[in-house]
Amino acid sequence: MTKNFAHRGFSGKYPENTLLAFEKAIEAQADGIELDVQLTKDGEIVIIHDETIDRTTNGKGLVADYTYEELEKFDASYIYTGQFGFNKIPTLREYFNLIKDTNIITNIELKTGINEYQGIEEKVYNLIKEFQLEDRVIISSFNHYSVLRMKAIAPRIKCGFLTETWILNPSKYIKNYCVECYHPHFAMLTPKIVKELKTLGIEINTWTVNKEEDIRDMIAKEIDIVIGNFPDLTKKIIDETVNK
Ligand code: G3P
Ligand code: CA
Fold first, then answer.
1. What average pLDDT does range 219-239 have in this prediction?
2. Range of the structural domain that residue 44 is part of
3. In CATH, what number is assigned to the domain containing residue 105?
């Protein structure tokens, strides 16, 4: 059955990649949560989408130029000023503490596309091990070298290649590197590509699926994980489909 993952938490209604958005995703009964990680100047793993804090907080500058003590003073919900109070940029450790006693599966996207954050794969893996979450995480990245670095450090951890546009022979490409999952934008999931991936046993986890018709299409195609901004809507549609 298709699983329902909340993209950057319940980001359709709450400030993305905050503990509030993650709590709301759990409340909405999502099966999993997708989030983005980067490193601060002092090596803390923080959950934020962009390389800079400009878009999502009331501060400016690169994540990598701040220590965590400096970074946690900015409001990651300033776009919603007056609605949800102050919400800091969370650390991955804080997030793991939030979900450790739930059944939530976490898709950790390593944001290593522009800044490669040397050593981030090992740091993330060490934290996964500390919380014993090896069987409840999927690591993905648009930087496939970064995914392979993680695989080399942690062969047992499920990993996926993220793609934003068409690539040739995705099933062969993914199989060739012994990676378990493919994470394409949902528009790339033609029936032929889906069939090829399924034939080779590759898990298909797709994003960012927000509209009802697209969610229904992904369920009909038996996609493994649908990552979207509205986990409440995705849950409603999955439940309807199951109870038909
Ligand atoms: O991991 C799926 C999706 O989150 C990738 O795109 O830009 O939302 O991180 P983006
Ligand atoms: Ca992401």
1. 98
2. 3-49+92-242
3. 3.20.20.190
